[in-house]
Design goal:
- 11% of the residues lie in helices and 38% in strands.
- Strands 5, 6, 7, 8, 9, 10, 11, 12, 13, 14 and 15 form an 11-stranded antiparallel sheet that branches. Strands 1-2 form a two-stranded parallel sheet.
Length: 256
């Protein structure tokens, strides 16, 4: 897809993987939880915490989204985070030329993300047990504000996180309508796989702002956790200096 100059950014798409782990303690928290249902809930919380950095503007100025650079085959982006959780390493590589997206354009760009993510972890109470997996589908995107030169992202549809331990997280995305609603809103539920009505936990909020996690279904459930996407401290990513990078690494290749 080609784009006008005002929408082009300076980051390569391989660098976007870092947005999934800006809060390393949230990312690694499921690996320390012994209860499988609560582990699945912590995975859901982690994924929701990644939505703001992944899909909302990185400088918090509404209407200034940028199209990332298209990575080349074999492009790398390497780094690490260091915080109270220890050291978390990032290895991001462009493995194929097709990035798993389909797009159409009128006054709005509609993007359907075809691929998925797979999170793998070892339960803390049985290190010799087979690794757990969490299959994560990705939301559809529509980019508004192009004709005004102030693009911004909305997510729509629903996505799922399906765990090998028998739990499913479902996330429903919605935007601001003509009459009611708030932009970037969502609701989410966690339930035993195949039993969608048996809601164990529910989540509601705006993914660039804040959300509340409740035990049980709906607004009448007891709030057990709150997460503020804007105030959550970001752990800086440590990237090797340019002179220490391989020519295949993103920053070296694009000479940033």
């Amino acid at each position: 897809m080609t784009a006008p100059p005002f929408i082009l950014g300076t980051l390569s798409l391989t660098e976007f993987s870092a947005y999934w782990t800006q809060h390393p303690s949230v990312f690694v928290a499921p690996a320390a939880e012994k209860d499988p249902a609560k582990r699945a809930l912590l995975v859901l919380k982690w994924f929701l915490s990644t939505l703001k950095p992944s899909y909302s503007t990185r400088n918090d100025k509404y209407g200034s989204e940028k199209k990332p650079l298209n990575p080349f085959l074999g492009e790398l982006f390497l780094g690490k985070w260091e915080d109270e959780a220890g050291t978390t390493e990032l290895v991001s590589e462009q493995l194929e030329g097709y990035n798993g997206q389909k797009a159409s354009f009128s006054r709005t760009i509609h993007i359907k993300q075809i691929g998925h993510a797979l999170l793998t972890l070892t339960p803390p109470d049985n290190p010799s047990a087979p690794a757990e997996t969490y299959l994560i589908t990705l939301p559809n995107i529509h980019i508004e504000g192009l004709i005004y030169g102030k693009p911004f992202v909305e997510l729509n549809g629903c996505t799922y996180i399906s765990s090998s331990t028998g739990y499913t997280g479902k996330i429903d995305y919605s935007g601001k309508g003509w009459v009611s609603g708030k932009k970037n809103s969502f609701t989410a539920t966690l339930y035993p796989t195949g039993k969608e009505k048996d809601v164990m936990y529910s989540v509601e909020g705006q993914w660039p702002e804040a959300f509340a996690i409740r035990e049980g279904s709906g607004k009448h459930g007891t709030v057990i956790d709150n997460y503020n996407s804007r105030n959550a401290p970001i752990t800086p990513l440590i990237v090797p200096a340019l002179e220490q990078q391989d020519p295949w690494e993103a920053n070296k290749a694009w000479e940033k």
